[in-house]
Amino acid sequence: MSEQEPSTPPQSNRNKLWSTLVASANQGADDQSKTWDLIVVGGGITGAGVLREAARRGLKVLLLEQQDFAWGTSSRSSKMVHGGLRYLGQGDYRLTQHSLQERERLLNEVPGLVDRMGYYFTLRKDKSPPPWGVKILLWLYDRLAGIRDHRRVDLSALGREFPGINRQKLKDCFYYTDAVTDDARLVLRVLHEAIADGAKALNYVKVDRLLTRDDGDITGVTVTDQLSGEKIELRSKVVVNATGAWADRLRNQMNAEKRIRPLRGSHLVVPQSRLSVAQAVTLMHPDDHRAMFVFPWENRTVIGTTDIDHRHELDTEASISAAEVRYLIDAANDLFPDAKLCCDDVISSWSGVRPVIGSEKNKDPSKERRDHAVWRDKNLITVSGGKLTTFRLIALDVINVIADIIPTKKVDESLPVFSPVTVTASQISLCGEKQAESLIARYGDGVKSFIGDLCADELKPIADTQISLAECRWLLAREYVVHLDDLLLRRTRLGQLLERGGEEILESLAPVFLQELGWNDAHWQAEVTRYRSLWKRHYSLPAELSKADEVIKALSEPAT
Q: What gap in Å lies between CA 80 and CA 71, rounded to an integer?
């Protein structure tokens, strides 16, 4: 890892699990009782889904993530649980149908974490699809989902819904619905379900290489603890490579084929006071006519996304480029000219790398299919591609391949991913109703332990979020937080919702970290320095856009 890694205290829950793995590995490689049925490599939504399905089939299963859970694509998506209207337009009927069915399932299973959101599909007068074609597409979209949510919207009504929208450039508009989520919290919720069924999951452990016999079959993996540098060997009957954009790297130890095309999607977060939208707007970029979105998220407005080849080192966090900033702001200002957005308005940015299965060389990135693929190389199962929405179906495909290698318990594939929630907002009496509902959405019945550990004077929401210091304290004790950014960028989104990455709350967080994780002042200061550097480089704007005069110059220059 590029940043200096301060050591974590030996009493942390995360380190206790690592110590258990070390002790088990040191008891002898020939002891079959120490062999895992399955080791899952990768702690994003795909790996979490595989862990969930494997655990409930009675497999002894361990997940290893080289960074933090959801560190990669699964905390930096467009936050949309959707069917993929664009994919239906490209003729990908099967992917769209499965995505829509999974969208409806998630809306029912985890309300509050996955919420339905209205989308206004605007059609420009220049180079937009014909209205009759969009109407047919939306009719089919709803039919595949088993709902009826679409309708045509008069441009006058659109203007009332979105004051300041540039109706003069539009010829028509349609309304439909999809869904929005906090993708990192969705990953963690799935991990909690798997752990409740007996699985183990550990972050900051890198899988270095596959261990094989003379016949080529895999016997396990060599791993390194990213915090201590300690190396051990872990034995496993099957290894699942669910590393997303990194999938070729591990698979190439068994098969030289290159299949992953990393594509970057970047987003900007601006205050609602600068661009207020109560629902999502689908628009076509004025330059290349790509579909984009402006949508509300956590009391902010998000503008996204780009879709370009990512040619940088994957182990370094993806960052938005100056060209992408200009591209996104230009699109927003074209549709909402009165906003006059500039870089000074941006609270934060994020960039994620999509693991797309490449097809034709040099093909337009936006035209690549978003299907997933599963490859078997002896007892290494590699899975990549796909969408956040279809993680359950991807996991089931992997489990079906595993079942050809080792016995698995038969389970009804239609079972819900998430356990039923029994706790109610009224039982969290010290919180306001909205804050209580938000806690239940993120943690399900796991929030019962939060109720018992409440520190009443820390319950006040931070700024205009639903996150409190009490919740931060609870997360530090239970969710394997190793670094400050684990809490601010993934367990919560405070680092993306608050100005300057949440600089204003660091003083309040310091005693919470010191008390819950046993850090000393030197450790805390090292983490603050690390976080500030990381946030500035990867979640803010490029340095060349940091000054107002440079912003104006950049926005006025033609794109190259």
A: 17
Residue scoring higher pLDDT (255 or 5) = 255
In the prediction, which pLDDT does 29 show? 59
Q: What residues have CB less than 8 Å from 526, skipping those under 6 apart?
A: 4, 6
35-59: b or e for each residue (b if 16 or more CB lie within 10 Å)? bbbbbbbbbbbbbbbbbbbbbbbeb
* SS3 track for 486-508: HHHHHHCCHHHHCHHHHHHHHHH
Cα dihedral sign, 534-535-538-540: negative
User: 290: part of which helix (H) or strand (E)?
Assistant: none
Task: Say which residue the tokens 């879709």 belong to.
Answer: 307
Question: Which structure tokens are listed for 211?
Answer: 């261990």
Torsions phi, psi for 115 (to 5 deg): -125, 140
**Is 336 strand, coil or helix?**
coil
What confidence tens digit (pLDDT) does each residue in 13-43 have? 899 999 999 998 887 656 676 899 999 999 9
* The pair of three-digit structure tokens given for residue 14, joined into one six-digit string: 């995360």
Contact 278, 120 (CB under 8 A): no
In sequence order, the β-bridge partners of residue 301 are 270, 296
- Is the peptide bond prior to 305 cis by the omega test (within 30 degrees of 0)? yes
